[in-house]
Amino acid sequence: MDEKWMKLAIEMAKSTLGQTSPNPAVGAVVVKDGRAVGMGAHLKSGEGHAEVNALKQAGDEAEGATIYVTLEPCSHYGKTPPCADLIIEKGLKRVVIASVDSNPLVSGNGIRKLEDAGIEVTTAVLKEEALQLNEFFFHHMKSKKPFVTLKAAMTLDGKIATESGDSKWITSTEAREDVHFDRHLHDAILVGSNTVKADDPALTTRLPNGGISPVRIILDTQLSIDSSAKVLTDGAAPTWVICGKGASQERESQFTQADHVRVLRMEKESIEIPELLSVLGDEKILSVYVEGGSKVHGAFLDQKLFDRLILYMAPKIIGNASAKSVFNGTGVEVMNEAPGLIFEEVKLLGRDLKLLARLEER
Ligand code: NDP
Ligand code: ZN
Fold this sequence. Notes:
This protein is of the alpha/beta class. The protein has helices at about 1-15, 50-60, 85-90, 110-115, 125-135, 135-145, 175-185, 195-200, 230-235, 250-255, 275-280, 295-300, and strands at about 25-30, 35-40, 65-70, 95-100, 120, 145-155, 190, 215-220, 240-245, 260-265, 285-290, 310-315, 340-350, 350-360. Helices cover about 30% and strands about 25% of the residues. The strands form two sheets. The chain has a nine-stranded mixed sheet, with helices on both faces. Zinc ion (ZN) binds near residues 49, 51, 73, 74 and 83. Zinc ion (ZN) binds next to loops.
């Protein structure tokens, strides 16, 4: 029975993925005498936690009940008072937890507080599912850097554009809708300056029913993209242009005339990926969806600074060597230097294949 109720709590949390960052997605179900008497999820950073919402619905029924929570209840004063205190105050008898919060302010303290108050606590129910659910959150908590996904749409021969630079469209609408959902799930989307120059992309989330647009990050050492580029003028989502130490101040003032644009200057003349990831981690970007092009993907690949690779493969062939491939980095000289990847998922989307692979170790 514990798993049944926890599954429901996880489903609720799952439905809020992409909208709670930098907080984790959390779901809670209050159960009394085999009936659900309250359900809730955390909907947005700064707003009520899942436990608060579920307990509000349970009202007086909370007394003597069991609460199923996907993440250890918080024990510290953040933007809201501690949930562990609320659970004690409402007289719950038992708390079932899927994953322990790795936030050092919470880790184990929530559980201890509940146990000290005489509440029975069970942990690790559907733990793997709960860890998977908040993978970006746990990764950032541990490494202080964002979780990095490299994504590309390619042909069967591994090309991302024709020799003339045409890339609209390689994949079908089904695959492109999947990409838009992934944009909604991530905190930031990242491309190189050449992609902006070649395609002038909007880089927003455009799903049939809306969705959240991530921060748009452009790697542009000299602030060389056209000041009329959509990402600089449309105000549709925040845009952060990353540049080298020596980039023109005048260009910076031009770009930042628009309220949604920030320019982030690196410490060196060039943009180094490790420094970039540290800066983004400090800015509370928990996940980055890297959309290319070849040089940017090549840079992340060469340094093995990514966690996951998503390739959409269309049943099309461009057929010459001069068209751009997914990766244009230094590459490896011998096969056994190639980064070890493990396929995790293969799916047919419309007429395209979606391939998901993970780096064996990082
Ligand atoms: P990129 O879009 O990868 O941009 C590369 C540029 O980014 C560099 O030349 C550099 O320019 C800047 N940059 C800054 N810092 C770094 C860094 N650390 N590592 C790498 N680049 C950095 O260029 P490509 O020409 O390789 O690819 C563009 C093409 O890819 C376009 O034709 C586009 O249509 C296609 N494309 C296809 C996609 C697909 O999924 N099919 C997706 C995205 C693009 P600077 O010196 O100015 O900073
Ligand atoms: Zn809480």
